[in-house]
Amino acid sequence: MKRKLLALLLAAAMTMTALTGCGGNQAADNGNKNAENSKTEENGGDTQAKEGEIPNLVVTYAYLEVPADIDAVTEKLNEITTEKLGCTVTFIPYTYGNIQDQMALTLASPSEQVDCMFGMFRSGIAGAVGKGQLKALDGLLDEYGQDIKATLGDYLEGTTVNGEVYGVTTVRDLAGQSAYYFDKAIIDELQIDLSAVHKYEDLTPVFAKIKEAYPNLYLACNSGVKPEGYYMSDDGIQDPLTDKLGVLMDSSELKVTNLFESQEYKDFCKMMKEWNDAGYVYPDIITDEANGGQALMKSGVVASYQNVYKPGALTENELLAGRELEVAVLGEPISYTSKVQNWSWVIPENSVYPELAMQFLNLLYTDADLVNLLNYGVEGKNWVLDADGFATDGPDTDGYSDKTAWKSGNAMLSAVWKGDEATLYTDLMDWNKSANKSAALGFAFDSANVTSEYTALSSVTAQYRMMIEWGFAADVDASIAEMNDALYAAGLKEYMAEKQKQLDAWAAAK
Amino acid sequence: MKRQVGIYSVLKHAVLWICSLSCLIPFILLIISSFTEDSTIALTGYSFFPKSWSLDAYRYLLGQGGKILHAYGISLFVTVFGTLAGLAMTLMLAYPLSRPDLPGRRIFSFYVLFTLLFNGGLVPSYIMWTTIFHIKNTIWALVIPNLMVKAFFVIMARSYFKSNIPLEIIESARIDGASEIGIFTRIVLPLSKPIVSTLLLFIGLSYWNDWNNGLIYLTDSSLYSIQNVLNEMIKSITSLSTMGGSVSSMTTLPSNTVRMAIAVVGTLPVLMAYPFLQKGFVKGIVMGGVKG
Amino acid sequence: MKKRKMAWRYRYLYLLMLPGLIYLLINNYLPMAGLVIAFKKVNFRTGIWSSPWCGLENFKYLFATKDAWIITRNTILYNLVFIILGLVVSVALAIFLSEMRSKKMRSLHQGCLLIPYIISYVVVSYLVYAFLGSNGLINKGILQEMGKNSVNWYLESKYWPFILVFVNTWKNAGYASVIYLATILGFDDSVYEAAQLDGVTPWQKIRYITIPLLKPTIITLTMLNVGRIFYSDFGLFYQVPQNSGAILNVTNVLDTYVYRGLLELGDVSMSSAAGLYQAVVGFFVIMAANALVRKISPDDAII
User: Which fold has domain C43-120+152-300?
Assistant: First the structure.
């Protein structure tokens, strides 16, 4: 009996080996096929479609929630691609809720075809590149992606790993800048001049004035759920190098230092401590999961909150906060790698039609119909163009409720939603261009060699950062020192050394 | 002696009532807060006696309309089908394992127990189910992986059979010429009403409450179970404030109360339907066994 | 030869087991081949099988933190408390429930006790927050009324061992009591009737009749729980404390450590390694427990 069982298990293992082995081979086959295809391409061949067969691209996209009219949109999408590219499209909508799991699984599954993926890469694309999950795009870009290159320009640097481009970012806010949004009624009533506010410190007297008039209102909180206490970008100089564990305090210089030991960090945390002691900080900031700054403002809990700034942000925030706002923009915008890589179009290794995939991506940068379709849904149904040339609610607006222009590709081609400035997207592009560019823009840190340090460090930052950065620690200096001790014990030195090493190598190769 | 009985009885009832109330009261708070005005919660916190009531949360859910109803249908099918199949397989596996005379019993027990501890992890399972069995974006994705037969339930059932089915009964039935399958359906099952109803409850709950399979194996939202729909809503509420964007229909979202309403919508039907379902099912299965 | 004949006699019993065994083979055993990725530096371009081996590299991070000791301590101690307290509470509830004369009352209580189990941990975390938040029922409704200072619950680690133990028991005791109740209800009534005639007190009845009869079930369930001593409910330890850093020293367990570490990395090999580590420890613990039980009371061993 025992032997039987063993045989059974062995058989199981072997089946599995065979099966996954097959999968691997299949992917390899696909790879070969592609190689052959590109060969025929060079020989003047048309597309990689087999004779008489219309190729089908698999494209994944991301939504807040899957739109009700997804089928209508897919149909329209197919009309466009059939006409322009001669292919059909299987359109797979991920949601912000499942995108992380779905990406991890499909990229790990050897025989699952995905040709274009709009991916979320919160810690950069270097990890996926290191695991061999993404295709290098340089050749494809040269051949089929000229419009992408023309639109994105330098920003393609931002999705480069080891000298090769692996992703195509979208036209959106590609830089970071911090701002505080205030309830306009209160600002007007107390006659506060926000134009003098340029730094976090400048906010203290403003807060004091509001707190005096409205002792029940809180002032310091931010828009995110589980908010960042310390915003790197507020002074427009620092580059967080993805994870803030080893940063460039001065982004014009490629020198990795420990943010948490810097004077800037200490000063910031001390200021937060003062704010907290003065009752400015929303007391549930660390634990309240339901309410971001906008919701708290709407319910009348806070008079101001922190959020990122970009052209058009004020309108966006007013909509969510349900009232007129006034903004105090802090520091200068800065562009760094993770801002650019955060969301990018990629062509996974499992792609069957990489050339077509690149043509599709290029279409996202040239075809206004396609861009508008992905942004607002089906024209005439989910949205209409009004007399002034703005996009506005159609007969069935809610059928495509997730109306945003930052995901699809080249937002400059997009119609502007009514209520925004007509020049919104050119302003955005100008703002992007005006941003300071970190000297390390394009450097993507790959933590593969220091993963165990990284996990240990994450544990330490989870324990200390929020407490210190929102001013809940009793003794700021002592807590910061304690955190730094814990960070070094967890291997921060080795981690930063690895970062510096990769950064130097990257700079040398450039 | 009488006094002891008295004390015991008082204590017993007191403990039960305290426990039951402590389970019930938070649930009542859940229901009340789902009917509270959203800004009241943000401003003054949760309360059993809120200052202002509101139906906004349910209005929002109702606005999602057909989606939720459709998802209830999917959940119902998946739960009923999965539970019945899973229950049958679990009992059929557990009973022979409980027989001390079965050759190879320990090896098979080990085979079952081993799966309680070891698993291949998410990625290998995903690759197997999607590339070999092609269940991605089919209803079977919600029914088959992970939930049907769980080692824990098998061992639980085995332990019941072991301690509650006297071996002598089985022996004498065998002497009377009953087949093994006949013994199982006509003698063992009817004696197993309590464990059958318990397993029904447990397996049923694990199906009803599951959203993991949907998260992994579904991207087609028309197949979402109610838990997937609700889960996605909760997640989109949380991402809304981080991602931003001018989302017209979302701007009026009562985020505190909707989460509570979602929980009510997900759990209340189970609580209401359970007693009736349980009665009918258990009767059906046990009696069916007797007749068959 | 003789053995084979024996097995043939039981062919129908094997047949009964077959669907379940096949299901477990497919659902649980086949994917186990994928555990090799715990020992590999995976490159998906070359495929899982041709990726290079990397020994125990993927396990390193589990021990790299100086908190490894705290995390292990938390995981094991909480589980031990959960097992013991859960056992006492759920057995007591089951016994009390079984003695309810009115069937209606019994199912009413049972229904109430099951409510927490049906609510997901995400929602439980909202409820806990409703009580403990700075605007919560305890601060506003009790402490303020009594004229005391409000407590910042999510920043004070001294309260959390109790809160977590309470929440866990609250959520799971009802569920576990259903199992014991089923077993008690399945007992032969004649035993109790005899006792009734002999005039034993309720305590004696519990001590000398119910508990001994319940012993096999108690042992089985406890052993299954012991096997999961290295696992912990992510929802309980991450969502209920709202991921608050200040109380991490009493809320950090293996699962939350792994989650925090891999959230951004999303490394399949490393998460696979964590799972394997938990399983191997659980395996040895359960085997040791089984050997012990086999020595003391062979009938109750689970294997």
Answer: MetI-like fold (1.10.3720)
